[in-house]
Structures are given as structure tokens and as C-alpha cells.
Amino acid sequence: MNYIENYYTNYDEEGRLLRRHGRVEYLTTMKYIHELLGDSKKKILEVGAGTGRYSIALAKEGHQVDALEYTIHNLEIMNSKIEGIQNIRTHQGTALDLSRFADESFDLTMVLGPMYHLYTKEDKQKAMAEAIRVTKKGGHILVAYCMNEQTIFTYVFKMGNLWDCVENNMLTEDFLCISEEKDLFELVRLENIDELNAQFSEEVERIKIVATDGATSYMRETIDAMDEKTFEMWLKYHFTVCERMDLIGATSHSLDILRKR
């Protein structure tokens, strides 16, 4: 069974990013994308583009975008939304093989979903190596991760799944989630990200790492119920603290911002 294809066929990813709690992740990611892009038009690759939320927005801003998506369902939705947009191309494929793109083709390469679904060190290293290869020297690579502790707090303890996880050997002794493809999401800690980056230390350097939703995932109902003025204040608070290293580990999603040497 293709668990990932089945999941995204039945999950409203577009709707998640449009709800207030999903908008925090989207708006934070776009904030840092815009900081990197500046005022000039750039060549952008999004690997794991989903339904095109980021790719289409950036193409509408005038950037030349290639959007690669693994699942046919998401790709069909994205293709249905790009009619009339001349500067975006869509592709079906995987983060592990970007051979259709030449070396140093893009100013910005975004890997905003694939690391959620890669479960071995070898696959993560391959995806990272490919993203680095197609990025121009001096360009940037954005890599998103699902962080471990939010799932421990909510799914494991708050939702009462602790003993099922223990019985099914889904937790290490120090409470790192052990995932397989059927579990859908690979969860990491900051030290796991650092370990992966260390394999490429001669090729990339970290500019910063950001908590893209921070405490929002713990307060979804509260965030979604806010009026717009209160939500703006929540965003102001979130943007104030989202780069604090003491809070990165507790976010649901993180964004690692790397520069190619």
C-alpha cells in the first residue's frame, strides 16, 4: 500500500493551510522566503509542492517556479489552479531524484514536505544532496521538518496513546518516536537535523532555523476562534519568538534555512 498517496488523497491539506492555525505556518514560511528573495525575480524549485500553496503564490509574484509533487492527487489539484500562469511548471516525481534538473539551476530550493516522509538516513541524505546539487552557489535551501515533542505532548500523553505506542515499540527509551511509512510522519529533534546537516558542512551553512508554528499547534481551537485583531497580535508574538533556540524543539514544524557555499 502507498500510505502517503492514500493519506493525501483523503486529507484536505489546502484547507489546513487556510485555517488560522495553518496560516501561521504558511505566513511564517512566506515571511522568511521573502527575506531571502529580496526585490529581484528568482528561479525557484519547490520539492514536495503539495497542492501548490507556496509555488503558485510565488509564481504570481513573478518568480520562475518549478513545482515537483509526488502524489498524483495533489498534483491534479495544483494543475487545476495554474491555468493562465505562464511562469510555473509542474512535475510528478520524488525528492530522491531531481535528475531532470541541471546542477546549480535554482536560486532557492524549497523542501517543505519530503523530510516528513523519509525514514532512513540514506534517503534523507539523498534528498538533501539533490536539493544542494540543483541550487546555485550562494543560493538557499529551505528544509521543513516535523518535530518530535509536539507529538509526545499531544498524541502520546494528552490523547492517551502512550501504552499503544509502548506496546508497538514506537518510542525509544528517551521518547523519540520511531516511525515507519505506515505511520506517515517522521519526527525529529534538533540534534537529528544537526546530524544530517553535518554530512554536508562543506557545502552548506545554516543561516537560521525557525519554529514555523511554535505554540500554535497546542492552541488550534483557540487560534481558529480568534477575531482578526487578536490573531494579528498572536502573529506579532509568534514572529517575536519563532527564532528562539530554546523553543525550536517544541514546535510542530520547523524550517531550516541553509545557504550553499
Features of the shown structure:
261 residues, alpha/beta, Rossmann fold, 43% helix, 20% strand
CATH class annotation: Alpha Beta
- Order of H and E elements: HHHEHEHEEHEHHEHEHHHE
How many structural domains? 1
Q: State the helix count.
A: 12
Number of strands: 8
Instruction: Give the biggest sheet.
Output: 8 strands, mixed
Which blocks of ≥5 consecutive residues have pLDDT under 50?
A: none
Shape: globular
Radius of gyration: 18 Å
Quote the CATH topology: Rossmann fold
Mean pLDDT: 94
End-to-end CA span: 40 Å
Which structural class matches the secondary elements? alpha/beta
Instruction: State the CATH architecture.
Output: 3-Layer(aba) Sandwich
Percentage of residues in strands: 15-25%
Helix content: 40-55%
Looking at this structure, what is the CATH superfamily? Vaccinia Virus protein VP39
Please explain how this structure is put together.
This protein is α/β, with parallel strands linked by helices and 261 residues long. It has a single domain, classed as Rossmann fold (3-Layer(aba) Sandwich), CATH 3.40.50. 43% of the residues lie in helices and 20% in strands. The protein has twelve helices and eight strands. The protein has helices at residues 3-9, 13-18, 20-37, 53-60, 72-80, 121-133, 148-158, 162-167, 190-198, 220-225, 228-241, 245-248, and strands at 43-47, 64-69, 88-92, 106-111, 135-147, 187-188, 204-211, 253-260. Strands 1, 2, 3, 4, 5, 6, 7 and 8 form an eight-stranded mixed sheet that branches. The longest helix is centred in the N-terminal third of the chain and has 18 residues, at 20-37. The chain is globular and about 50 Å long.
